[in-house]
Design a protein that fits this description.
Distance between the termini: 52 Å
Structural class: alpha/beta
Largest sheet: 9 strands, mixed
Mean pLDDT: 85
Strand content: 25-35%
Order of helices and strands: EEHHEHEHEEEEHEHEE
Shape: globular
Strand order of the largest sheet: 5-6-7-4-3-8-9-11-10
Low-confidence stretches: 1-12, 253-257
């Protein structure tokens, strides 16, 4: 069988099946129409292999839909990886700290090194289960320079993040996190988001729809539309929900050719939702 290539913004990358198999992902369920489970450790392997087609190379334009009233305080970026949108968020004048969480230390280091941000690395032990995690702290600055909030990235299991008992967050930015997690983790994830947010906090979440029937969830990014986010968040964890943006159907450039969720010629559209009034 010919090797399949993944095309991202015109750049040909390694065969996804080869990369994912090496990362320990069992792709066999997709052959029978079932979702693939992605082990947490596999994301780290993908970073080590340099296979991260989901990462934006520039600040995501979807940030323009974040309301000014929410650009403040402490901001959580879930499963952040190397997302350069954290730089855009750190430049909001009233943001005091950006906190990202990702399982991969490689991703955390790459973020700072690729963007030429000085940082320090330290290793810690969780008091809840004695598991080790790493903290990467970037240098923020304010007076005399363009405002740039301190960025802290925690390399750890996201579901253990609440065990650190940090202060709650004013805003959460979820661009490619909920769409990436395994389907059986969605309820656990939604509950975690609720627990780490302030009562007056704002939760921004991206969704993606594949324009084909039936919707499929073989691999990340998985199908997430207004019905999915309503099911997991509205009237359970947040009282108010808004749809801020829904794009016109278009080819999904970031994943593009080789995405097992897409049939030949299928297109996608992306959405951006806001949840407020924590319950």
């Amino acid at each position: 069988m010919a090797e399949m290539k993944l095309e991202v913004a015109g750049k040909v990358m390694a065969d996804p099946k080869v990369v994912l198999t090496k990362a320990g992902v069992d792709l066999s369920p997709a052959r029978t129409g079932n979702p693939v489970t992605i082990p947490t450790e596999s994301w780290h392997s993908m970073h080590e292999q340099g296979w991260t087609p989901w990462h934006d190379k520039e600040k995501n334009p979807i940030l323009q839909h974040i309301k000014d009233d929410h650009k403040k305080g402490r901001v959580l970026v879930t499963l952040c990886g190397e997302d350069v949108s954290m730089i855009g968020i750190a430049k909001y004048p009233n943001v005091t700290e950006v906190v990202g969480v990702d399982f991969s230390p490689e991703a955390c280091k790459n973020f700072f090194e690729n963007n030429k941000i000085s940082y320090k690395e330290s290793e810690h032990v969780s008091t809840s289960d004695n598991s080790k995690y790493k903290l990467y702290e970037g240098q923020g600055y304010g007076e005399g320079k363009e405002h740039f909030a301190k960025i802290k990235l925690y390399a750890m299991d996201f579901y253990k993040f609440p065990d650190l008992k940090l202060d709650q967050f004013d805003m959460c930015y979820d661009r490619a996190s909920f769409v990436a997690i395994n389907l059986h983790d969605r309820e656990k994830y939604a509950k975690l988001i609720h627990n780490v947010m302030k009562n007056d906090g704002a939760y921004y979440i991206c969704g993606i729809e594949y324009q084909q029937d039936p919707p499929v969830h073989f691999f990340a990014p998985r199908y997430v539309d207004v019905d999915v986010v309503t099911k997991f968040y509205k009237d359970t964890y947040f009282a108010t929900m808004e749809t801020l943006m829904k794009s016109k159907p278009h080819p999904y450039i970031q994943v593009g050719k080789g995405n097992p969720n897409l049939k030949e010629g299928a297109v996608t559209c992306e959405s951006f939702f806001l949840f407020t009034d924590k319950m």
